[in-house]
User: Fold this.
Amino acid sequence: MRTIIVGGGLMGATAAHLLARRGEVVEILDVKQPGNATWAGAGIICPEISAVTDPDYVALAMAAGRYYPGLVDALSGYDIGFGRTAIAKVRMAGEEPGAFNRSRDILYARQNSGAFPTRHAVSAVDPAWLREQHPLLGDVAEALYYPEAARVDGRKLVEALRWDSEAHGALWADALVGRIIRESGRIAGIETVDGEFRPGERVIVAAGFWSRALVAPFGIDLGLTPHRGQIVHLRTSVAGAGQWPILEGLRGHYILSWPDGRVVAGATRETDTGDAPFFTAEGQHQVLDEAFRVAPGLRPAEVREWRVGLRPASTDGLPILGAVPGVEDLWVITGHGAGGLLCGPYSAHLVIAAMLDGEAVPTAFSPRRFV
Ligand SMILES: Cc1cc2nc3c(=O)[nH]c(=O)nc-3n(C[C@H](O)[C@H](O)[C@H](O)COP(=O)(O)OP(=O)(O)OC[C@H]3O[C@@H](n4cnc5c(N)ncnc54)[C@H](O)[C@@H]3O)c2cc1C
Assistant:
């Protein structure tokens, strides 16, 4: 059976890698649309510090965190920028304690429930000690700390998945898919916007936020909206960035440092912009303002690059995974919003296991909820 994957962000690339390694015939069609989310992603891999409470999401995110080391092993011949590092959630001096307390209560309650065992515990740390760990950090009032988060370079990861899948026979093509074709009640392939037909008896839609338009002709509105994220890459001359903990402020922003001195600060989370993957004066101001508030030591850093991505966010905040109801052999992997670099590879694994081995995907993530 020939499978066509539409979209070569992290979801499509992982699906291609898994299918090709299972000996399946697979072709992946992708154009790097402006706004591709994986290309803009920061790279934080840490379910343990997330204050999301939905139990289905937490279970998925925790399993996704455990899935990463196996993926890293499978791609051991490639540089994907994966590395372990700590993470700290910080309340800056002068900030009201409410939001910090709410996060702490959620994390401690989850920990104490024992429902999601983790290798380490989230715990409060002395702000003075934390400033020793991160020399650019400002005046912290309180901090929570988890010692074993991770970072990954989304671009390098997708490239590695591509090379690995190609080495196992997958075909990658640069093409914009116009529509999925069904003939006599069966999936027959896709047609590109240039009218070119590519045959395939099975189609996986992994086209990020654009998945909605591809599935809509089958009568299902996937409930996906683009959440724009603007993010900056800085370079600091202060030594030791590779060892600095990831910093998370209380306003949804974060600062992630890399061994080469790169410091990524982001990101805006804009929910009402539509398909508009460009930078705004307000967005860039917000990103830098928040970065300097938490880490004033970043002020002299060199600005290397700005990136912008459209996170594929579902209306209920949960990923959309599995078979499209009523359309045999049409599958979807999307809807990860701000957590796709973490959850994506495991989500793709769940969908491929459902497709090839008949395993169940948790019903909370089924596209059926949009019927
Ligand atoms: C600023 C920012 C920071 C982030 N930071 C993190 C983080 O630290 N940790 C984390 O876990 N997550 C993070 N995320 C979220 C994560 O990046 C996304 O959830 C994830 O990358 C989504 O991957 P995807 O493959 O579903 O979609 P995408 O990466 O958007 O890929 C979809 C692909 O499909 C292609 N495509 C679309 N339509 C068609 C078509 N018709 N034909 C062919 N190709 C098509 C697109 O061009 C694109 O290449 C961040 C996102 C942003 C924007």
